[in-house]
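## retry 2 of 3
previous attempt timed out at serialization; input unchanged, resubmitting
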Amino acid sequence: MFSNASPFRPFLDVNVLSAPFVVEVTKEDTLAAADRPWFELHVRLLARPAYQFSLMLTQNPAIAEDVLQDALTQLWASPGTPSEEAEFRRYLYRAIASRATDYHRRQALSRRLRFWQPAPADPMAEIDRRAGDEEMGRLLRRMSPRERQVAYLYYFEDQSPDDVGRSLGIKPATVRVLLHRVIAKLRRLAPALKIEEQSS
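## retry succeeded, writing output
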């Protein structure tokens, strides 16, 4: 956030856009203003429409004000800022759009990080939680870790034997053998369970 001492804040407060330009002025500000008297005129003229543009892009009044102040600061600090009004407006709006885009990128990244969760440490517990099928989970837990991995990827993730093999770093033929064992074990452990081998 920008401090209240920003030289542009009086222009950006929507309620005081018509108020006189009153701010603590330093010697450096006076020298810069003397070099570029047109800057203050452009800011006075464009403050309201530029703020509205920023608000439209950000949908947040506080962020819109910060984005506009940041853009104005960039133009103030840049020796290449054009003095002609139309060009100044174009530079200002481009800077606002760039900063609004940066803001949205940061927000999107923040949302992804906030809702990202690591893979479960125990996929079988995740199967139980998601499917609510405790009996199937109990049966699968009685298999070897490799058999459980193959069964999970093949039946729950709907991966082909080739995909399962690539995921686990084993040959598709080995995947098919493991699937055959899984089905045989499940039939032995739960004869009433209707399990069919899928042809792939």
